[in-house]
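Submission checklist for the structure archive. All mandatory fields must be present; incomplete records are returned to the submitter.

[x] Identifier: DUF5368 domain-containing protein
[x] Organism: Histidinibacterium lentulum
[x] Residue count: 121
[x] Sequence attached
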Amino acid sequence: MEELTLGTMIAVFEEIFGRALFWVMVAAAVAITAGYLYVLIRDRRVSWRKYLVAQIAMIPGAIAAVLFVQQVTNSGFRDLGGPVDLLVLLGVAAMGAVGAAILVYTVQSLIWRPEEDQALR
């Protein structure tokens, strides 16, 4: 692998996760991101109460992402071979944490409208 291109990265991820699972994950990420942008545009502000709950969801999201990747790739913590593997694992955890926070904030905002958020205070 002499060049790191988008096509190469897609091929690597399809090999790791399988073609169907990879594209399902891509579609889910696009749908959640679109929902998040919709909520931000609709509300025209960030609800800090919802944001706090979303931050709490980051810990289980990070743990779930690491366990998911280890399950899909059929590996475990004993298979970590060096510093690069640890950095990749930390990157997976960070992406899982951020993804969980965005998902939880979006779901909360779709369930409770801004007017209803004011009534909860």
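[x] Structure attached
Curator remark: The two ends are 56 Å apart (CA to CA). The chain has a mean pLDDT of 88.
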